[in-house]
Amino acid sequence: MIKVKDRKLLLLAGDGIGPEVVREVKKIIEWFNKNKSLDFKIEEGLVGGISYEKHKTPITDEVFYKALESEAVILGAVGGPKYDSLEFSKRPERALLKLRKELKLFANLRPAICFKQLVEASSLKPEIISGLDIMIVRELTGGIYFGEPRGIEPIENNERKGVNTHTYTTNEIQRVARVAFDLAKKRKNKVTSCEKSNVMEAGVLWREEVQSLRDKEYKKIDLEHMLADNCAMQLLRNPKQFDVIVTDNLFGDILSDEAAMLTGSLGLLPSASLGARDKNGKIRSMYEPVHGSAPDIAGKNIANPIATILSLSMALRYSLDLDKEANQLDKAVQSVLDDGLRTKDIMSKNKKEVSTSQMGDAIINYLS
Ligand code: NAD
Fold it and tell me: What is the pTM of this model?
């Protein structure tokens, strides 16, 4: 068997339930190291509130450089009520923003998959949601969240004006569209691009640049354009019409939350943030569950580790070129759900409730 040398994975557990769910991921990586002759070097570091408590900063330079050197970062969650009163620059979330910005993670991938075993957890009818498998690609470093000018300024009559600016360039649009087209090639060859070209010039540009890239380089992809408000409705009406959706930062923020929630459980939703390829073909990346630090259940060993475990599976697939191992891990998660094992958040009648660590152990059992 081939040894995969010097592959560094950085685990940043963070706050709240972060350490509990990342512990299960570490067990799985160790299993792969022991049983599949892979050779991941696991590094760990503090991030978020826990880093602030020890070092007075949400992420130290040392941890940041470890992130730069690793092939993929897997993050648990950061934040919690005890850090809410900290000044903005010391807040746990600043660590995430710094990592996203400095690693230039411009594409956020959020799958919305409905596990057949959990169809009843969705608020939609089973026939609408069962078998759902879509991927939302959100542009993450541009658009209205970053555009200048921005701010709040006084105007006449004692009133104030709030300003944010929505800008996109050809390069920003095409590099995220390229991620979407490449993903679609491995799926059902269909991309839906969403904007508001009926009322925004930046939306017109978005539509034209996505179309032009498709016509030049991705002729086999079936590309459809849809207004973002219509997409929000279609996600509820007939979500299975979609394969890959690509959209900007603002609309992606909203549509990816909506799509993710179609499936019912926060504890099952992974995500990936990808940057550009460097000249060696390496993509910078960070993988994390969609959920937060869940302070209400932290320390009780009841959190669902599946979202973080599926984030590892995305890392195996998108950063480490280990599709076989990713499929194996996805299958192990399916098998455990088939067996009726459930953490508290997804528990239902006639199923067996298990703890965070028991869920991790059961998944490893299936891997074995
Ligand atoms: P949350 O996702 O932490 O929790 C929402 C609800 O879902 C809670 O009832 C929680 O118990 C439950 N839940 C979440 N993950 C779960 C899991 N794996 N298993 C079982 N139940 C789970 O969102 P929140 O309560 O709005 O935020 C809590 C803290 O997390 C805040 O400080 C927030 O800023 C932070 N946060 C961090 C991230 C991140 O690190 N990326 C994302 C969102 C929120």
Answer: 0.90
